[in-house]
Amino acid sequence: MRALLVVLALLLGLFLIQPSWPLLQAEAQGAALSVRGQVANGTAGGPVPANIQVVLHAFRQGAGQIATYRTLSGPAGEFQFNDVAADAGSTYALTMEYLTVTYSVLASATDLAQPLEVVVYETTRDAAVVRVERQALLITDINAREQDIGAVEFVRLVNPSDRTLLPDLSSSSISFLRFPLPPGARELDVRSDLTGGQIIPIGTGFAVTAPVLPGGHDLNYAFRFPYQGVAVSYRQSLLQGAAVYQVLIPQRLPPVQVTGLESRPLLDLDGTTYRVWEARGVAPGQGPTVEIAGLPQPTVWDRTARTLTSQKTWQWFIPSAFAAFLAVLLIYSLVKSPGRLAAAAPGAGGRQELVQAIAFLDDRFERGELAEAQYRQERGRLKSQILAAAEQQEGAT
């Protein structure tokens, strides 16, 4: 199922950029072909991927039909599908799973006449193999009345090694990607060409647990964050480092300034002019302290309107008798149902909560808030709980 979701995501992007493809009738089938190919190991010294299931999916735009063919790779990684319907209106996706990572290749009907190749890789748990070529913080809007800022962060990742980074949340090392956010950030929306894994919130940002294949990848995330006064600042801790880190602000926005970075010449992108600040050669785990100064302030009317419409103002008008009644009900429920309170206590959740706890613990250790002995002990305890939950789940199935 995971491989099929990967393929569907790839094809959706392909259809969106090629709207001129003709719609064919469902019965318009081409001649049957024998499709041959090879599974190769892209890791130096890696074993031949033999006896591994290879799946060929056939998609036809507009017809809503999917044909699936399966075979196994041979001793030398070779494979062959027989009686594959070659249709000029269809797109084909070759997928396979190797060491729990899904690899995919898209092909057209004309490509089927030539041998297809799928390259797989051995895995590594070392997140240091992934680098950041460029990271840019783009300020999209500044709302003076609400005193918050909209932003999008663009990240160009590259894995120059010949191994796929496979995150491991149960190990003692930090083997997944993490990205910081300003204090109070909300409305996070992460988009990436990385497939699989999860987006996990941590204390100062979020983590991505998707495998990172060799080559280049793009990740971007939009969010909003608040400010008070005329400036806001936070440390942009870049755990993977960055060859280039930039802040871009459109000239149409109020004339704010960015300190902590070097000012660069104006940049024109798609008809919009941006002011640019940047830093180069940021080492892993380091990062500049970005300060955005000269922020616009709300007017007197804006402040009054916010006060009148704020939740705190309306809460102040709630009758005290009603609040006391709710408090009595709460105390009564706690006294009568202690077991229910224990069931909701932190740490009694499932594997997802344990994963988040490990990510948060790693983040605290990285910021120097925990001694190494305490960090190792607590992480070992959480890891044991994850493994126990996994064994319990396997036993139940």
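^ that was protein a. below is b, sequence first then the tokens
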Amino acid sequence: MTEGLKINRRDFMKEAAATAAAFSLLLAEEDNARAQAGGESLLCGVIGVGVHGRELLTQLAGMKNAQVVAICDPYAPSIKKATEIAGEAATYDDYRKMLDQEKPIQAVLVATPLHLHTPACLESLKAGKHVFCEPPLGLTVDQCKELAKAASDSGKVFQVGHQRRSSPLYRHALNFIKNGLIGDMTHVRSQWHRNESWRKAAPNPEQEKLVNWRLYKESSGGLMAEYGSHQIDVVNWYTKSVPRSVVGIGGIDRWKDGREVYDNVQVIYEYPSGVKMVYTSILSNTHWSEFDEYIGTDGAIRISRQQKGLLFKEPEAIHMGWEELAHKEQVGDEQGIILDPNATRLVKPEEEAAVKAEIARSDFRRELEDFVSCIKEGKQPASTVSDGLRSSVAALKANEAMEKGTRVQLGEELFTF
């Protein structure tokens, strides 16, 4: 840890109080967002109602301040499943028809295959709608920049679906990092591992690419785009910067079934501060599944797929006494301190129930409540189109680095529009 970041117990307790206050403020902001989003329902249309789109539909269906009036998907089985959630919402197989015929719609949520993100969002903005878009913004850097400029010029709320930005746990971890609890952050390790083919059964050959769009370069950015973009965004957020270079390797090594995108990727990003992010995503093993680990000179914070946060302190790190009060969990030979504001006594006893309830809520729900409240209040969302551009470009450039087998430099001009 650098000399400037060393803190004694008294200083830590001051920082802990600040952290507790920040988390309490977060709860208040969440409550205010839900209150502000109340009143007259926001009329929404959802473009793309596959698995992810139906998750958004489910969350919207539970919100009193939002009403889904139309859904769109060219794949009939997806529409059928979605109507079980959306009820009497009008159905379409072409988003342009939906936008033309459903004039009262105020906001559009885009959860389509990647190659349709840019055109669907551009058409929605052109129609005067607020937009929520799942990342990445597009299939190419040029598409991403085009959409970012259009969204910025539109005057409409444009939110990117980086769920971790709405997570109290990730925000809580950021406070710990800011307060020097892991010293100087030097490395990040993130992964998304599954043991599955990513392939779905198509009803006929004509619909193969429609159903399995993730497997083909004309419609997919592969593992880096679908999952890496989310986890890269957190590092951008935590470091307040973007990577300056990326190198990587990938391949189609298990699922040799005609797919075009890699079934495994391993990349390393370098940030201006020297922080290195190692990212892996594979479709051949589930070990450790999904996690993000932020490593510093005095400790490391790991956030797992189960939304559990653990702090692992270095043996030589300053002992401040508060550790005895914290709940702990044994992980192999290491003992981790559970990052739970309630467990670490950073929240007043009377706030414990509210904290637990807030942590248990879906991050999808939180980000959609943020979207609605931003529309009603005219404010910026937790994840803006600029944030989306940065994570999108970083993910797409990793694909380029793997394909070329070389280190790719990421100039500032790539992240501006």
